[in-house]
């Protein structure tokens, strides 16, 4: 018996025009938690999909417990005891949580093949409880928040009793406490002998969980290290190919006059009595636990959702924001939480994606000037450092992090004064993260006012000038970054209003 | 996520239930109104007529529901029905001693083949359902015309046992109603209590997820069109037996009635949604409209408009109710 | 791909902004296939009938199918949304019936025509409003209901009567020629086609329509007035149905509540054969135009050699499926 | 004498229309011309207009048409006539401006009246009756129903009450539910007149299934093949129709007479119509027509010899 439960040798996979995996090797020990890291677009997700049979490799071999296996489709991998949580949720929005968890391996009466609904609901509830979630498994998937859906995905993987569980960025949309639950579960799985591949852009996750770490870069295998044997700096260098000395750029923006003021803004059932002011050059970080109502607040400020009461002042004048166009006209921009659903048109080329928010800039009497459009797209795509061959690449061909950069580029087409960024670094690699932070700092220096929603403590502390903590739809604490600390923020996020 | 808040939430099942109740409420109000105008409406004999006349529609609706759940649509069922009816009745007229069960099997078989072809086109050749079925609708109608040579098969050419398929009764219940009930029971079980049944929903709710989690999407797609075809084939036999006449334009345009019944019954054209219990109320409402309008003496020129308005109102009202529940389900805290 | 790991500095990658010309890509387009079918149909037809290949015949033939083709132009927009409008046949009936009744009640014909267009606009607007306000309902459901409703209203108005007796000049729409051989309807259609082509492919409006068809949520977040544009498109579709009603009514000289029944499926067939996917976001006007003429000339040509209508339907059905099957081959890229 | 003769019937896939085409073809074969048979898939005026255009392009000499709409074909048929094509209608007339002559299967007055006479005889001169027609705008049916109502005004029908005119839209399912509605809404109903094939067969079926023969009488116009069953089982004692083959046949000869200018469509002209003998053009309304004969009565005695014919 081989000492590796899963081994992949010389895997190569090309998509039309892109080599996603280039002669990659990988070894998973039985019962270990193995972190897989690398830049956006390094090929991690593709690699996972090769293991689970979603993609067929062009060449290379897969060995399971020393035996060569041929995985033709996801069913094969399921039968071999491999389960995966994919980066982009693979849920059934119309179906109940229970069904999402058990789809394809429903509990059935052995004789009659009848589905045992009650049994399933009960075990679903049990799985959810184990994961620290308490929602009713009969609920429809589409009524859950992104984080809750993620928890269901995890429950789904656990429910198959797989020997190997692969998690592709499971923490990307989780907050600290929820991540803790996930750590606990993952460790428990390890205890009972499950082998786990864990993909994440968070170093925190890796240090907390993994024994070993493998790094991919530009579709190639770079190396595997024991987590304790390798320094942070070396790991970053392996991933990015250069050194990143400073994650958060030094801020030299001058915080000046008030631009935007929110007074007692409420939306029934979502948020209540929200008040704050925003100055030019300032980065206001809003943090809190998942479901605290941050996204809802941002969407109301951007005119996607109505607010019920409260006042908004823009540059001193009272304004109403009832639709997106009103917000845009004032100079408010919004980077949505879910880039694939809300930010991009995946089947479109990059240039068209970038220009969509500012069609009037590239048109005359409503006639589009393609030349202008292309040059604008090229300029902005290069500005945000997108990894793409040309502006005619389709958005869906980019990796997650690069897609996020395109959404940022879209914002930069308009003349904005206030930029609202909702989880801008979700699922973004270190390199891109620091690039996005750099862009943020630059924008602040140019006098933009920025609202940044984030669940990442270091990011909030590193980038914010002022920090708002939300809990249950209300602001529980406002503090300057100087007086803030992780403990204070967490306390405010979890307690009642102080 | 506190425990309390999640318990208050209206569950998936509740939403569906309330929707169905609202539709049933609508049906009751409508029935009372009609009864008021014509006291014959709620008599046993009329209810029997109503159910008998709705049976074929309801059988087709089950198949259509499954097709629509997978995000598809089948415009060819009227044509399939005609083809199966024509072939069966031609066979019966040539072999009058043929056992009615054999006739039923022939019809189902022809329908199955027609459906399987469509399923193949949709699943294997990735042709959008609306195009594949629009195309095959023309083809099936044309074939029916060609094999019949433009002739009809009339009552005197059909054996009594064949005609008895739809006029006979067991325990006082008309065969058509009985067949429809059996089909509803079978498919209720199939859809709710078998893995394959649930996969139909998975495919409709998110084909990408289904594919990635190892569900054979093509097979399921192929299956639902085949089932639809089989049910259309069965309906073809029942149709010609009921009306004792087979023509090449039998049931032309009937697919629209079936789709309308599904839609009223809460089957979402966007896929992933639809329940057998909801479908029954949709089919019933449709059947009542067809049955009641002639009985309350409305001018024939008003019938179309009334039918359209009722469908529109039923659909809008149920959408409003769904929205009410949906939004209260989303709101997390009541102050 | 550039690997700039060695020099240790951040270098913004150069991103190409000129399209690489690929001969293969150029030729393997859906529209070329349609074009080939188009040519093939003319060759076959002219082999079959000695009357076919003749300027007069070809020009005259267009008169038989261009009325519904007007709707195909705007239906293209609707289907790019991923929606569908099956109420257009009924809209024709309603608009036409109201026009005829008002004319016979003494309204001058030009005003009656205006009312006809207005009815189309209102019918389309109602569709649009319902679809936008009731997002949980799909367009199929809404237009299925209004399909029954609109025709129902036409029946209420005209019952079993026909209404006609229009002034002589109204005949010109359906039967008139320009320069004695070019059908007026052809000229009108070409003008409309150019307008719709430009609208879809050259303007911000068209771009937004594609955006909504691909991802309406992202469009909303990008500041596209999704609802407004949807309403405009459905209203436009109603208007085009009313224009079709004018030509059809002129062609028939009178109208009845049952005219234009089944038109919706013909129009949809034209649009989808043109490569516009009912799943939304894809398709080009050129394809639709080619497909209009393919179906039209095919029908006309086969009818000219007196092939039974049923057989023509089989041929069109198979053509529809077969060509879409071909287009699904990986060879054909079908981008907007 | 070679010529190209075309016939357009209402729609394909209907034996009545097929027989009309048969008769027309037979006549033209006797005459020795080329025959073109056309039948649209759906019975709409729109599809007939396209066919007329196609026939104009083929330079036919004559078009005989069973119109799906009396008025809507006018512009198209006028265009045909202006190109020198002789146009006549048969079975279902187009308006007088769009045709040179119409082949009338039977006098509409007679058709209307004879059905009332029949039902009166069947129900013994008193009781409620209803009419189950095709679509509400079917022109033929509507004229016949008008004549039925006129006949009912006669004093001998004082005891007969026409309670409802229902429309089955020539659809099987709708005709059945309309029949059932009649039975339930008018429990005292004595007779049904269904002047159209689909409706009379549907009514026959309903009455048969409910064992109502003898209680509710049925008559009207129907195809012998469709009605054979119900005539034999006594649900319908007798009904009427004319011979569609003869309608087509007469249209063929009339077309030839027009083309060879034996007639021009003016009243008083006569011509030889093959086995049907000499026929005369007569005035009818503001147009002219050629009458085939009286409607033919089908009953138990003769139905067996006709049921296999059409
Ligand atoms: N279906 C596909 N078609 C074409 N190219 C693809 C496809 N899927 C992935 N790629 C390309 O393959 C490369 C690797 O992508 P992959 O999603 O595996 O990256 P990743 O390492 O998971 O990145 P991230 O951290 O952003 O999720 C990228 O360049 C991407 O554009
Ligand atoms: N406990 C819950 N029950 C039901 N729905 C919830 C719950 N928590 C959040 N949601 C839903 O999830 C969505 C996201 O929540 P919201 O935007 O209010 O929070 P957030 O602070 O932005 O959290 P996130 O970090 O996930 O963005 C909302 O649409 C909300 O309705
Ligand atoms: Mg990835
Ligand atoms: Mg959020």
Describe this structure in words.
- The complex is a heterotetramer of chains A (498), B (335), C (336) and D (310).
- Chain A is 33% helix and 26% strand.
- Chain A contains 17 helices and 22 strands.
- Chain C has 15 helices and four strands.
- In chain C, helix 2 runs parallel beside helix 14 and helix 5 packs antiparallel against helix 6.
- The longest helix of chain C has 27 residues.
- Chain D contains ten helices and 14 strands.
- The radius of gyration of chain D is 20 Å and the shape is elongated.
- At the B-C interface, helix 6, helix 12 and helix 14 of B face helix 7, helix 13 and helix 15 of C.
- Chain B: It comes from Halanaerobium salsuginis.
- Chain B: One of its GO terms (cellular component) is plasma membrane.
- Chain B: Keywords: Cell membrane, Membrane, Transmembrane, Transmembrane helix.
- Chain B: It is found in: Cell membrane.
Task: Please provide a brief summary of the model.
The complex is a heterotetramer of chains A (498), B (335), C (336) and D (310). Chain B is mainly alpha-helical and 335 residues long.
Task: Name some characteristics of this structure.
heterotetramer; A: 498 residues; alpha/beta; Rossmann fold; 2 domains; six-stranded mixed sheet; 22 strands; 33% helix; C: 336 residues; mainly alpha; ABC transporter involved in vitamin B12 uptake, BtuC; two-stranded antiparallel sheet; 15 helices; 68% helix; globular; disordered N terminus; binds adenosine-5'-triphosphate; binds magnesium ion; transmembrane (chain B); transmembrane helix (chain B); transmembrane transporter activity (chain B); membrane (chain B); Rhamnose transport system permease protein (chain B)
